[in-house]
């Protein structure tokens, strides 16, 4: 099958597996989503949600984050990895929002990526989930799944993975595909112990077939041993 046919097969399969895939970071507005995604770097969404449950009660606006000493904000997010640099970036980000955007999160990709701690992935998440602009944010799950399914090459950069996905996935499906690939990678095609034996995409997954070979060999050896013993 062609690359686009293969991608269509992947999209249809993960749609059946995770029809209700969505952003799992808790938020009520673009500002909270920006903070949550910033905090999620090298950290699980589950941990971020536990921290932001209290954080978003204490801090409602950019002004709120700047009204406390940096050390206090660090303490509020201490359970998050890299909490010191993230706290610093949050306060710098809030200062820019106040000085340049009247306290509002910019609605352009360029404006978002200019903010401290906000990279391309974060900007894509905010653009797609907060502002309804189609985008595929390539996080660790999306990157891993794309490479395992040979949609991208093993040595492709995150940007190249995004570009390849954008080319193969219909634009109107970019955002939901982002969520479904994350769910597929987070709950099925895990970094450790992926569910290869029950994976509906095993037929097109080279890595999955390689992972399954030891199991097949072990099974064959067991059969031979059984036959020899019976003999």
Automatic annotation (TrEMBL):
CDD domains: ENDO3c
Class of enzymatic activity (EC top level): lyase
Binding, [4Fe-4S] cluster: 189, 196, 199, 205
Cofactor(s) essential for the protein: [4Fe-4S] cluster
SMART domains: ENDO3c, FES
Family recorded in the similarity comment: Belongs to the Nth/MutY family.
Alphabetical list of NCBIfam families matching this protein: nth
Domain HhH-GPD: from-to ranges: 39-187
Alphabetized SUPFAM superfamilies for the sequence: DNA-glycosylase
EC number: 4.2.99.18
Record field: catalytic activity: 2'-deoxyribonucleotide-(2'-deoxyribose 5'-phosphate)-2'-deoxyribonucleotide-DNA = a 3'-end 2'-deoxyribonucleotide-(2,3-dehydro-2,3-deoxyribose 5'-phosphate)-DNA + a 5'-end 5'-phospho-2'-deoxyribonucleoside-DNA + H(+)
GO MF annotation, one: DNA binding
Xref: PROSITE patterns: ENDONUCLEASE_III_2 (PS01155)
InterPro entries referenced in this protein's UniProt entry, alphabetically: DNA_glycosylase (IPR011257), Endonuclease-III-like_CS2 (IPR004036), Endonuclease3_FeS-loop_motif (IPR003651), HhH-GPD_domain (IPR003265), HhH_base_excis_C (IPR023170), HhH_motif (IPR000445), Nth (IPR005759)
Listed HAMAP family: Nth
Cofactor note: Binds 1 [4Fe-4S] cluster.
Protein name listed in UniProt: Endonuclease III
Biological processes, Gene Ontology terms: base-excision repair, AP site formation
Gene field: nth
Purpose of the protein: DNA repair enzyme that has both DNA N-glycosylase activity and AP-lyase activity. The DNA N-glycosylase activity releases various damaged pyrimidines from DNA by cleaving the N-glycosidic bond, leaving an AP (apurinic/apyrimidinic) site. The AP-lyase activity cleaves the phosphodiester bond 3' to the AP site by a beta-elimination, leaving a 3'-terminal unsaturated sugar and a product with a terminal 5'-phosphate.
Keywords noted in UniProt: 4Fe-4S, DNA damage, DNA repair, DNA-binding, Endonuclease, Glycosidase, Hydrolase, Iron, Iron-sulfur, Lyase, Metal-binding, Nuclease
């Amino acid at each position: 099958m062609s690359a686009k046919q293969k991608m269509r097969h992947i999209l249809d399969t993960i749609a059946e597996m995770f029809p209700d895939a969505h952003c799992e970071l808790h938020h009520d507005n673009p500002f909270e989503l920006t903070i949550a995604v910033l905090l999620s770097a090298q950290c699980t969404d589950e941990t971020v949600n536990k921290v932001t449950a209290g954080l978003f009660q204490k801090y409602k606006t950019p002004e709120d984050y700047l009204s406390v000493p940096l050390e206090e904000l660090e303490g509020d997010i201490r359970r998050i990895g890299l909490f010191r640099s993230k706290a610093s970036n949050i306060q710098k980000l809030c200062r820019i929002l106040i000085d340049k955007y009247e306290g509002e999160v910019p609605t352009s990709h360029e404006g978002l990526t200019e903010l401290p701690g906000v990279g391309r992935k974060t900007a894509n998440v905010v653009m797609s989930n907060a502002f309804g602009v189609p985008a595929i944010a390539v996080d660790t799950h999306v990157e891993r799944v794309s490479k395992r399914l040979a949609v991208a090459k093993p040595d492709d950069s995150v940007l190249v993975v995004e570009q390849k996905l954008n080319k193969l996935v219909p634009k109107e499906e970019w955002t939901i595909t982002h969520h479904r690939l994350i769910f597929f990678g987070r709950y099925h095609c895990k970094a450790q112990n992926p569910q290869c034996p029950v994976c509906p995409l095993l037929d097109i997954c080279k890595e999955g077939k390689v992972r399954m070979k030891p199991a097949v060999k072990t099974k064959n050896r067991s059969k031979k041993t059984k036959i020899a013993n019976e003999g």
